[in-house]
UniProtKB/TrEMBL annotation:
Belongs to the uroporphyrinogen decarboxylase family. It is an enzyme of class 4 (lyase). GO terms for biological process: protoporphyrinogen IX biosynthetic process. It comes from Pontibacter oryzae. HAMAP family: URO_D (MF_00218). Its main location: cytoplasm. It catalyses: uroporphyrinogen III + 4 H(+) = coproporphyrinogen III + 4 CO2. The record marks 76 as: Transition state stabilizer. Its EC number is 4.1.1.37. This is Uroporphyrinogen decarboxylase.
């Protein structure tokens, strides 16, 4: 199906765009009353993720309400460990909890390399429903977590400031870590390929806990698996968003992907220099800017756009939009990108 708005795809590929495209991580979520209305009618977050019609509905909401240039399928990176046999619970106001962690060879033997059509069919169904409902209005982004980030949750058992159990495994049992990373990578590659087959126009890989590893550990336990994932997705653009991995920008320049996401701590001009001219950059406004005045949001957004320049940039926040953000402030950010992004590209 021909896209009516293909700005995101063209920007990712480095083609000339008439204005800077914009979308937000976590745009389908708690900032929208319309999302909360759907969510409150269900038993919990997981029911929403696993009900394709409702996941599709909340995926499309920000396209209608916020006027963003892309939809991102409503799901979670933790559906991958669940599909592998390591189930999780989503505890309200606490985050994910894994009743059983992976810390020994015996734990590893209980896992499988998942078949996306069997174990993650609900996400693929949601993509198909969303694509049909969007009818080519904007691209649909599919996604998955990077293997290190998924391992971190499976070993730690929950979110953590340090992920000391997971990081400790890299030192105390690197063989087991690599075996687990291998299984996660094989599952995730099959899953992402299935998302593309179902209709995803672009793929984003989230390495949420990249920044807690040393550069040496990141290059041994994270980068090779991300590189393999990038090599495997050949028919749609790929974005790698590794939060806090400012030390790996030159490494990312060698990845077989189109776009590198920057978090708000990263210096734009430094990242551009290290990544080089052949990659698109995505980001990187501090989500907390959206707590400030409309005037401040407009000013800082224009400053960001000036620093990135008119081409090879996808405007976004440097992290997911926070749940207590006023949707009107988000609209201000989006509209400023659209208006000023047209001027600098014109």
């Amino acid at each position: 199906m021909q896209l009516k708005n293909d700005l995101l795809i063209r920007a990712a590929k480095g083609e000339t765009v008439e204005r800077t495209p914009v979308w937000l991580m976590r745009q389908a979520g708690r900032i929208l009353p319309e999302y909360r209305a759907v969510r409150e009618s269900l038993s919990g977050f997981k029911e929403l993720v696993e009900t394709p019609e409702l996941a599709a509905e909340v995926t499309i909401q920000p396209v209608d309400i916020l006027d963003v240039d892309a939809a991102i399928i409503f799901s979670d990176i933790l559906v991958v460990p669940e599909a592998m046999g390591c189930t999780y619970e989503m505890i309200e106001k606490r985050g994910p909890l894994f009743p059983n962690t992976i810390r020994t060879e015996a734990d590893l033997k209980k896992l499988r390399v998942a078949d996306p059509h069997e174990h993650l069919h609900y996400v693929l169904d949601a993509i198909k429903i969303t694509k049909k409902a969007l009818n080519g209005r904007v691209p649909l982004i599919g996604f998955a977590g990077a293997p290190w980030t998924i391992l971190a949750y499976m070993v730690e058992g929950s979110g953590s400031k340090t992920f000391s159990q997971a990081r400790g495994m890299l030192y105390t049992n690197p063989k087991l870590a690599h075996q687990l990373l291998r299984m996660i990578t094989d599952t995730t590659i099959a899953y992402l390929k299935a998302q593309v087959e179902a209709g995803a126009n672009l793929i984003q890989i989230f390495d949420s806990w990249a920044g807690i590893l040393s550069p040496a550990l990141y290059r041994e336990f994270a980068l090779p698996y991300i590189s393999e994932m990038c090599d495997a997705i050949t028919t749609v653009p790929v974005t790698v968003f590794a939060k806090g991995a400012f030390f790996a920008m030159e490494d990312f320049s060698k990845l077989n992907c189109e776009t590198i996401g920057l978090d708000w701590n990263m210096d734009i001009s430094k990242a551009r220099k290290e990544v080089g001219p052949n990659k698109t950059l995505q980001g990187n406004m501090d989500p907390c800017l959206l707590y400030s005045s409309f005037e401040n949001i407009q000013r800082e957004t224009i400053n960001m756009l000036k620093e990135f320049g008119p081409q090879r940039h996808i405007a976004n926040l440097g992290h997911g939009v926070y749940p207590d953000t006023d949707p009107e402030k988000v609209k201000c950010f989006v509209q400023t990108v659209k208006e000023y992004g047209s001027i600098i590209n014109g």
